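Morning. Coffee machine broken again, so started the prediction first thing and wrote up yesterday's gels while waiting. Chain of 416 residues, entered below exactly as on the submission form.
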Amino acid sequence: MASSSQVRGVGVEHVHGQSPEPVLLGATIPTRTAQAPLPSDSGGGSATRVSAEVAHLIMELQSVGLRVEAHLERRQSGAGPSDAGMLWIEGFPVTVPTESASAHRSPYVLKREDDNFGIYRDGERLAEARGTPRPKYYDLTTADGIPYWHIGLMHLDSFASTVVQTCSYWGNSDQCAFCGIGLSLAAGRTIVKKSPAQLAEVASAAKELDGAVDATLTTGSSNAPDRGARYVARCGAAVKEATGLPVEVQFEPPRDLDIINEVHDLGIDTVGIHVETFDPKVLARVAPGKARTGIEGYFAAWERAVSLFGYGQVSTYVILGMGEDLETTVAGCRRAIDMGVYPFVVPLRPVAGSLMEDATPPSAEYTDKVYRRVQAYMTYRGMDAGQVAAGCARCQACSAMQTLQPLLASSPVAAG
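Came back before lunch.
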């Protein structure tokens, strides 16, 4: 039996045993052939045992953290991958908690081995890891004496910056419980506002000296109608003009959606518009300011953005471990995928000094369950991180979902 529904401008026909095939205005949607079987919600496949073990290990590390017994480039507080070590594990880019209390108790240990690292548990070597040296451009300063690393940081191979380090939600009843945007400013590790010229200068050095392959720029939300989108886009345009790097900018849904057109007209490659959770009760509890936009407000912004930037070039963070309903989460991710939005699913990473600093990250078993269901659907729909031009969904280091893509793609199974 077939039934049809409309999802914010996407006409979807649901047929038992088949994936919905959306018709989306303004975007070309790559899909598999009609004969391709839809993977079951449980995912699965017949990939190598080693690959499955690596996937599970990364999920475990992002849940319980990693004790570090060797020098490793790390990131403290702020709005990005906070309180984390940055490394490649068996070739996968990964950020893992290294500074939290739970990380200090972790059964997993990083040890130096000649030119690389090994990850151990109970004396058994589980995987090879490779770190990153301190970026060379961190030793440079601007003409007026600002250290380059106060303007932008390297997140593995990506140049990243919060262009405005203040947020209208910070320090009041609207503060996002998971966020640490004000902490690095209070600690003197950054400056309040970076200019387009400063960002272009530092990003150029990051590319030339340290091999940055893209730039990811975010911003605190403002009370202006554009919510900060225009300024972060101006900064992104300056970086792209100076470096030629693909650029993602991240912002909240502007009150006037035509502002998204302005962002696109500046030559930005991808955008992140982050709902954080598809569970409305959780959103109201952990991000009351964002909750006023409402989940439907995010879908409206995504629809406009996908029509401009294209399928898979619009993304949203989806944070696991905040008490969300699993089925609501998976359903929201699927609806976003059908629209052409990449749901970047990550585990909660409690930031010291944030309102959720004492929260417990989700278990690897829970994240695995969600990852498999979402990644299976993304694989079927032809959405691939390798298609993303820039940003968090391109990098993938803060999620273990990337490790399941080859497992699911190698042996999809029919839906029941």
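The two ends are 15 Å apart (CA to CA). Going to sketch it on the whiteboard this afternoon.
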